[in-house]
Amino acid sequence: MYCIAIHGGAGSLDASALTPELEKLYHEGLNRALNAGYSVLRHCGSALDAVRNAVMALEDDPLFNAGKGAVFNFDGVHELDAAIMCGKTHEAGAVAAVRHVRNPVLLAHNVMNGSEYVLLSGEGALDYARRAGVALEEMSYFSTPGKYRQLLDAKMQRFARPSDTVGAVARDMHGNLAAASSTGGLTNKRFGRVGDSPVIGAGTYADNATCAVCCTGDGEYFIRLVSAYDVSAMLRYRGISLEEACRIAINEKLTALGGEGGMIAIDRTGKIEMTANCATMPRGWMQSDGRRGTAITFPEATIG
Ligand code: ASP
């Protein structure tokens, strides 16, 4: 069984504000990304390339808080975080607080393949991007009116909040797992804040022996709980199911600390899990047995 699952961020959407037009945009964006990832898997490609391509499609979609459409930070600019991890080799690449990079997940993949490092940040990451030849954009490329309104709201209420982060997990026909995440982080974030998405083990993790996981929501909690790795460790050391491990990570541990969010995961057999402790998490899945779907709210659409 080869398969892919994606998410477009937990908790940021007010279910009551979901108009039919907005719902349609989410389903369309999720389906585009699913197709981008799944076509890699169908053509015998790797889980790693599948999650990279799916996340790039979400980064190019202004609806989501990654790449074009990333949220504004306190200073009114976009600082982007992304990570990718290969479950077969345990290689990983990540970038944090990077500006101008059109597809941060592509840069993360470059860091993984072309450098001796795992995580590059800020100006240094931008310098690396120039040398790697990845596409750069003017800062205005990333800006959208909707995310600017979110910044104004956040400034009025003096908060920093998660929104529409993206992620993908996949299993390819060789049984290899991979995970990738990308985000603009929190609206109104300050002081070079970096969330869980580019932190390997916190927001993004993959291990062929267990599972691939992407988290979304209140990043500080996922960092403290090392949530993505925690799910993998529960499978490895306690032998419990993916479903039970995700439930413990989100409904017990995250909830107990007062955090809000969700995760998507695929285990080594191709079982998919998508869970959250909030009302919405746009998500989609596609499996080689023909099952596919997209959903936004909970408890809408469970995977059979
Ligand atoms: N987890 C992301 C962060 O804290 C935000 C999100 O998932 O929307 O940067």
UniProtKB/TrEMBL annotation:
One example GO MF annotation: peptidase activity
UniProt-listed Pfam families: Asparaginase_2
Q: Which UniProt keywords apply?
A: Autocatalytic cleavage, Hydrolase, Protease
The active site annotation covers 165 (nucleophile)
Please give the biological process terms from Gene Ontology that the record holds: proteolysis
Keyword Lipid biosynthesis attributed: no
The protein's matches in InterPro entries, at most eight in alphabetical order, are given as: Ntn_hydrolases_N (IPR029055), Peptidase_T2 (IPR000246)
Q: What is this protein called?
A: Isoaspartyl peptidase
